[in-house]
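Justification of resources, computational component.

The compute hours requested in this renewal are based largely on the per-chain cost of generating structure records like the one below. Each record pairs the submitted sequence with a full structure-token output. That output is archived, and it is also reused by downstream analysis tasks.
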Amino acid sequence: MAPIYDGDVTFDSTESTYAGPTVGILALQGDVREHAKAIERCGARAVSVRRPSELAAVDGLIIPGGESTTIDKLSRIFGMREPLMDAIAAGLPVYGSCAGMIMLANDIADPAKDLNGEPQQTLGGLDITVRRNAFGRQVDSFETELDFQGLAPAGQAETPLHAVFIRAPWVERVGEGVEVLAAVKPPEAAQNARIDSEVRAVAVRSQHLLATSFHPEVTGERRIHELFIRMIRGDA
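The structure output for this chain reads:
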């Protein structure tokens, strides 16, 4: 099992207060610090969330990239699974990147199984089916430019987004009410027995839920986090 995230999300900053909303980062495992930095660069406050009381104090939540099986297990160990599912059902804005997308999906095409043969669980909320590690292993990581819908504020032109895929999932099924924001054709170099040449969705949204297969927090790309903050404010 990957280690529990044991850092914090407080960074050196000249800002003593933030004008934006308070965004929680689910700090069980994964890219917690990177997401927190991105949120603070967008003018919002980032806080770690490990307990139900901390979840209740945020305006929106990010489920970071990491290991979906570990996040699943730790969410139950920390008593967070049911509070997270309740918050999602109640309309809390949530953004999931990579493993976070898997956690928000209703269905996994290839769920991992524990020693008892029980499949991993998700929090659900997004009516999609995802495939874990769909683009291949760590060595198959790649970067590309994406046409991503909805990033630009009203009246501004959309421009391509640079995306990094690291052991990323893709979306195999999109349910009613789920909007595909970006899609990509798997590169030839990353293909293996599970991969075909179809274009696959890698960013989706359904009302208050947003998910991407890739990691905007590791590239300095702020537009995904800015979109999420607009969602929290009700401006997108």
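The helical segments are 32-41, 52-55, 68-77, 81-89, 99-104, 223-233. The first helix runs from residue 32 to 41.
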